[in-house]
Design brief:
Blueprint: H1 12-21, H2 23-30, E1 44-45, E2 53-54, E3 59-60, H3 62-66, H4 68-75, E4 79-85, E5 90-95, H5 96-112, E6 120-124, H6 129-140, E7 144-147, H7 154-164, E8 168-172, E9 174-177, E10 180-183, H8 184-195, E11 202-205, E12 221-223, H9 224-230, E13 239-240, E14 244-250, E15 258-263, H10 265-278, E16 286-289, H11 296-308, E17 312-317, H12 328-336, E18 340-343, H13 345-354, E19 371-374, H14 381-391, E20 395-397, E21 409-410, E22 427-428, E23 434-437, E24 450-455, E25 465-466, H15 470-478, E26 484-493, E27 499-504, E28 508-511, E29 514-517, H16 518-525, E30 531-541, E31 545-554, H17 562-576, E32 585-588, H18 602-609, H19 623-634
Parallel strand pairs: 4-17, 6-7, 6-8, 8-11, 11-12, 16-17, 16-18, 18-19, 19-20, 31-32
Antiparallel strand pairs: 1-2, 3-13, 4-5, 9-10, 14-15, 15-25, 21-22, 23-24, 24-26, 26-27, 28-29, 30-31
This protein binds coenzyme A and adenosine monophosphate (AMP).
Length: 636
């Protein structure tokens, strides 16, 4: 298959049926879009079941497929990456030839630090081109990257460094947020000390306006630019399709993040399938994902997907509003001729709030835009209708998770586009055998809400395990429903098979498209000396989808000013988890509602706070606790 072949003419229903009826045939055919060093002879191997192994005898290099391949095909002069910084007002471009050369040289820098096949590299960078370069350079060496979002604090970085045990850390002197400069080096320093790894090589990309002398801190410090200037370019290292490409930590229900492991072969096959069939993006198209490389959306669709497809990817350092205004997205679309934009609904709500009639759009020609894709949280119908009206293009929601790495449910614009229904991300994508079941695993009826589960094996590109802990993978995802992966989301399917995703069944919340664990926030709040116990719940928020709100019970005999306590708790969460937790509200209460076995009734609390119908479980220990809480929760 050539990269420019349009898959149009194929129908979603045929593709979907074939993916489930003949997965070998379907995925081996899709695998032809990859250039392999050793072509796979089979698609799925159940040898390590329930762990998933795709293309077990295939060999490749992912970075080579994303870069050198396009140069070899004669498209070296085409733009690969456009970095648009609304923060500093610059645009920096890289052709495929330039990006390939830069990545090869940075791979040389990493190699000089001892990084080789299978080693880990932790990348803690904001939205600058070096983030993509560091990821691709790691992949070029057959090593494994783990990118940590810049909004996480030192402790979260330390937890990831400890778990991934990297050979090197790649970072910068600073990131730019609208209201402040983010100094990365003190955070990295603290994280290394906490992780007990002060000797680890730290490669630092210096940025203007930030502290420039980290060497004085006594680290094993390598200057990005100086090292790059003398580096010998490194060639691509062939790896097995089943070898890990990256680890991406995500929030679970406990305070310990889960290290989602992505393989090389299944990932490349799945992303290439999605670029052509789900997004209708092909070599030469300009594609923009307004997310961050620290999240899965950034991994799959700022870096790997568009580059594997030979498209031009736009990397945006800025916000949807305030940098400088709510017309920023429209400016980027016009300036770079963006064909499709992928963002989170919260970004659209932020724009709509500032500019309800989209007056600022009139100043730009957004005519290149053919489709707006959203994910990260449910696309609420008001935002769907608003975006559809102001942009006049299809607004396409799709549902997925860090674990799956690509859309579980979507509307394949490269096949026969399906009618869009507001509130639904449409139909399951190939390879996903989606069912709605009750708590015992029995199927529920049409229109009835239940747990969304996916039949095993999951398709290529989905997680292969959790880093260093196969058992935790099985316990977290595969144990609740025999033969199925539990998504942790609830929802229903309508009479046309359209899926509606309604929310999480666990303690994971989604704040401004960022996935957070209320359990992790509770652990931090619980450390405050005045706090006896606490419950953190995710309550509905008009802009950010949800926000984390804490209810705390004081230790007996302790008295503290509520405002002072709230300030201290907010500062504690910001220090321990990071600003991204966006934790701003903590209220003192007399008691928390619990079952007789001691489980805090967080779901009931959330329902009351959101003004939803609720039933108090019969197992409640003391009904008066909830009665006393109703006015407090309702007033939040
Ligand atoms: N480094 C350091 N701090 C960061 C950060 C980063 N990379 N990203 C966010 N933060 C900080 C913010 O500065 C803010 O700090 P503050 O409390 O001092 O103001 C805090 O974390 C909360 O950030 P956020 O929730 O992003 O709120 P915001 O008010 O800055 O912006 C939106 C709101 C909706 C504009 C913004 O969240 C957005 O664009 N969201 C899209 C999310 C997205 O793309 N998700 C990926 C899934 S597709
Ligand atoms: P993350 O792993 O950060 O991508 O978050 C995944 C979770 O975000 C999912 O389990 C859902 O709860 C939620 N989510 C992501 N996309 C959507 C969507 N399109 N509709 C509804 N929920 C979504």
């Amino acid at each position: 298959m050539s990269l420019n072949d349009s898959p149009n003419g194929r129908k979603y229903s045929d593709e979907y049926q074939r993916s489930l009826g003949d997965p070998e045939g379907f995925w081996l055919e899709a695998a032809q879009a990859v250039e392999w060093v050793t072509e796979p002879t089979s698609a799925y191997s159940g040898v390590d079941a329930p762990l998933t192994r795709w293309f077990p005898d295939g060999e490749l290099n992912t970075a080579w497929n994303a870069l050198d391949r396009h140069v070899a095909a004669g498209r070296g002069d085409q733009l690969a990456l456009i970095h648009d910084s609304a923060m500093v007002g610059t645009v920096t471009t890289y052709t495929y030839s330039e990006l390939t050369a830069e990545v090869a040289r940075f791979a040389g820098v990493l190699r000089a630090q001892g990084v080789g096949r299978g080693d880990r590299v932790v990348i803690y960078l904001p939205m600058i081109p070096e983030a993509a370069i560091a990821m691709l350079a790691t992949a070029r060496l057959g090593a494994i990257h783990s990118v940590v979002f810049g909004g996480f604090a030192a402790n979260e970085l330390a937890v990831r460094i400890r778990d991934a045990a990297p050979k090197a850390v790649v970072t910068t002197s600073g990131g730019l947020e609208p209201n402040r400069h983010v100094e990365y080096l003190p955070t990295v320093h603290e994280a290394l000390a906490t992780a007990g790894a002060p000797e680890l090589p730290v490669i630092v990309k210096h940025r203007d306006g930030f502290a420039t002398d980290p060497a004085a801190l006594g680290w094993n410090h390598v200057d990005w630019d100086a090292a790059l200037a003398v580096a010998q370019p490194a060639g691509p290292v062939t790896v097995k399709a089943t070898d890990p490409l990256y680890i991406l930590y995500t929030s679970g229900t406990t305070g310990t993040p889960k290290g989602v492991v992505r393989d090389n072969g299944g990932h490349a096959v799945a992303l290439l399938w999605t670029m052509a069939n789900l997004y209708d993006i092909h070599a030469g198209d300009v594609w923009w994902t307004a997310s961050d490389v620290g999240w899965v959306v950034g991994h799959s669709y700022i870096v790997y997907g568009p580059l594997l497809a030979g498209a031009t990817t736009v990397m945006y350092e800025g916000k949807p509003v305030g940098t400088p205004d709510a017309g920023a997205f429209w400016r980027v679309i016009e300036q770079h001729g963006v064909k499709a934009l992928f963002t989170a609904p919260t970004a659209l709500r932020a724009i709509r709030k500032m500019d309800p009639e989209a007056e600022l759009l009139k100043a730009y020609d957004a005519g290149s835009l053919q489709t707006l894709f959203t994910a990260g949280e449910r696309l609420d119908t008001a935002t769907f209708h608003w975006a559809s009206k102001v942009l006049g293009v299809p607004v396409v929601d799709h549902w997925w998770q860090t674990e799956t790495g690509w859309g579980i449910v979507g509307n394949p614009r490269g096949l026969d586009p399906l009618p869009i229904k507001a509130g639904s991300p449409t139909l399951p994508m190939p390879g996903y055998d989606l069912r709605i079941v009750d708590g015992y695993g029995a199927p529920v009826g049409v229109g009835e809400e239940g747990n969304i589960v996916l039949g095993l094996p999951l398709p290529p590109g989905t997680l292969t395990t959790l880093w260093g802990d196969d058992q935790r993978y099985v316990d977290s995802y595969l144990s609740a429903f025999d033969g199925y992966y539990a998504t942790g989301d609830s929802g229903y399917v309508d009479g046309d098979g359209y899926v509606y995703v309604m929310g999480r069944t666990d303690d994971v919340i989604n704040v401004a498209g960022h996935r957070l664990s209320t359990g992790a926030i509770e652990q931090v709040v619980g450390k405050h000396p005045a706090v006896a116990e606490c419950a953190v719940i995710g309550v509905a928020d008009a802009l950010k989808g949800q926000k984390a709100v804490g209810y705390v019970v004081l230790k007996s005999g302790v008295s503290i000013d509520p405002d002072a306590l709230q300030k201290e708790l907010v500062a504690l969460v910001r220090k321990e988890i990071g600003p991204v937790a966006d934790f701003k509200n903590a209220t003192i209460v007399d008691a928390l509602p619990k079952t007789r076995s001691g489980k805090i009734l967080r779901k009931t609390m959330r329902q009351i706070a959101d003004g939803d119908d609720y039933t108090v479980p019969s197992t409640i220990e003391d009904p008066s606790v909830i009665e006393n809480l109703v006015p407090i929760l309702s007033a939040r």
